[in-house]
Amino acid sequence: MVWKFRTTKPFSHPFLSSSSSTTLLFSASVSLVFINCITTTTTTEAAISLPKNVTIPALIVFGDSIVDQGNNNNIETLVKCNFPPYGKDFMGGLPTGRFSNGKTPADMIAEELGIKELIPAYLDPNLQDNDLPTGVSFASGATGFDPQTPVIVSVISLDEQIKMFKEYIGRLTGMVGEERTNFILTNSVYLVIAGSDDLANTYFTIGIRRLQYDVNSYTDLMVRGASNFVKELYELGAKKIGVFGAAPIGCLPSQRTLGGGILVRQCAENYNQAAQMFNAKVPVALGSLKSSLNDAKARLVYIDIYNPLLDLIQNHEKYGFAVANKGCCGTGNIEVSILCNKFSETCPDRSVYLFWDSYHPTERGYKILTDRVLAKYLNDLV
């Protein structure tokens, strides 16, 4: 597959090979979006203390909408958010393709580590070469570890993200040389954030995989995908890899609506149980993989996001949030991606809402989660 740069030509996906397939994509994507609620390179001073003699040259990110910095803007999919009211609290109030009212965890972590203020999307046609040495995001909203998940809505699979990363390495080598490239690859922090869309979309909402797998066997499939992905990253030079677990998806506003009763909107506990099952298996798989590598410098770290986010949801008032069961956009019960648009009313005070749309936290929510993740896991990663 050939990736195009500095062009506004959309990413070419096999699912979009004809006008009829485009129609099918539109239909399938709208259905998914509706049913599922439908997801600069100036170095900054590190806000947290790094261990002595530790240098983190770049933050390199893979995964789904939590850290999609705008890659989906440049592919033919309906899973986009490059329109108002997204970006309402971003610099200049501009929508960038980030699934938030402001910054994402990728931006916040890069800034906290003193790398740069914003992590750019790799497919951004305005991406500058001088952004490459300090990191980019390959993430694509609505993708997952299950290879079927990105196909459903024609987004960038994790296999394709690996291909993009290989190309990135080639471009980086051409810029800074092989020795510096190897230093960057070895010392950078890598984040992998996926899995929630596999469960929320592919398994529970669309239901395709429920015809083939029970929850136990499906989470096994997801974990195999995660383990294989991490192994590929390692083989390409990555040493410091953080793998996020699934969120408490049953308590996300949209999933309350879809799985917790459209009127009572309780947390869908079967969704949460599936997420917990996946999360229990990931660290075991990472431990097994690390043992097989026989590399003392390899750091494969499982990052729990389930419990910190569940704590924010259940004890939201303690953190200054007034609303945690619906998003700020529209009714807050179902709107996300194209359903959260310029015609949607938004809450007047985003700071008291934990969720921006019905699937993604607000910038303030992300900031609290990011701070907790860094405090707990940074030393394990670096």
TrEMBL record:
Transmembrane segments: none annotated. Pfam families: Lipase_GDSL (PF00657). It comes from the Eukaryota. One of its GO terms (molecular function) is hydrolase activity, acting on ester bonds. InterPro entries: GDSL, GDSL_lipolytic_enzyme, SGNH_hydro_sf, SGNH_plant_lipase-like. Belongs to the 'GDSL' lipolytic enzyme family. This is GDSL esterase/lipase EXL3. It comes from Rhododendron simsii (Sims's rhododendron).
